[in-house]
């Protein structure tokens, strides 16, 4: 007899194998940096916009692929340019998408714009702050997800936001914050960040969780389980990187508002 407890872990093997593959590819891109990380970021960003389109208008895949190709072109150009005027080009894809949609125009506009800005932000975070701090950002997001997954499956308890994301629990959410704090603490041991990095890590963890919640709300609104079926055990790239989008947008906001200088180490 299969218990509901054991069914909680049915997808663990597939999730781990997919996670290992994504970690290897992502780690290689982050370590090499430069054009390699740029190509990876452009690819992931373009695919996520395609997934967004398919969730909203799945019966017109060709338009989604053309928009994804345009995203890749625009983002590649923006990485090379980077001026404030050039950033206005990020509105091109959302505006074109809006003109082609009959429904959910605001939804597409907001998410398509956010995805592109986050992708651009990650590339510049790697260039301006270097490998160490991009690694920190990624580890906070990953550990938040890992701690949240195991705590939520092990302890369960009250739901964090049942109407939006019925699987997320307060135990998993808080465990994610604790995991992020541990990442921050580890980074105090070999960087000059100081204790503040622990608090920032926890806030970054929450921003990532809100990115996850936002995508969950989108899927619930569209009536789909996953953004696509590209990654076994994880759904689509949007499902896997939604938290990273939230974290990247938060760090971009912090760096812009507080004019944090680049350190690149």
From TrEMBL:
Q: Which Pfam families match?
A: CTP_transf_1
Q: What is its EC number?
A: 2.7.7.41
**Name by which UniProt lists this protein:** Phosphatidate cytidylyltransferase
Q: Which family does it belong to?
A: Belongs to the CDS family.
Bilayer-crossing residues are: 20-53, 65-94, 106-125, 131-151, 172-190, 243-264
InterPro entries noted in UniProt: PC_trans
Q: Which reaction does it catalyse?
A: a 1,2-diacyl-sn-glycero-3-phosphate + CTP + H(+) = a CDP-1,2-diacyl-sn-glycerol + diphosphate
